[in-house]
Write a structure and sequence with these properties.
Number of strands: 0
CATH architecture of one domain: Orthogonal Bundle
Shape: globular
Structural class: mainly alpha
Distance between the termini: 57 Å
Order of helices and strands: HHHH
Helix content: over 70%
CATH topology of one domain: Arc Repressor Mutant, subunit A
Largest sheet: none
């Protein structure tokens, strides 16, 4: 029975980590937002170049942030 209890707690902790990582990807600090805006104004939609200036962020995360925040379609 101890093994069953242990595996259940592992499943719960894995789910919690996944939710936390998804939430944190969409949250950007004020400094990151400022840098993304400034870099976008300089280089346009060159997401990998912008991501290279922000440690721990991928081009996909930055593009997703930008399109969700500053979508041009209305």
């Amino acid at each position: 029975m101890a093994d069953l209890d242990h595996s259940s707690s592992d499943d719960i902790s894995v789910d919690s980590r996944e939710e936390t990582s998804q939430d944190s990807k969409l949250e950007f600090s004020e400094d990151e937002e400022t840098l993304i805006t400034r870099m976008y104004n300089l280089v346009g939609e060159r997401w990998p170049l912008i991501a290279g200036r922000i440690p721990g962020r991928t081009a996909e995360e930055i593009e997703k942030y930008w399109t969700s925040r500053y979508s041009t379609s209305q």
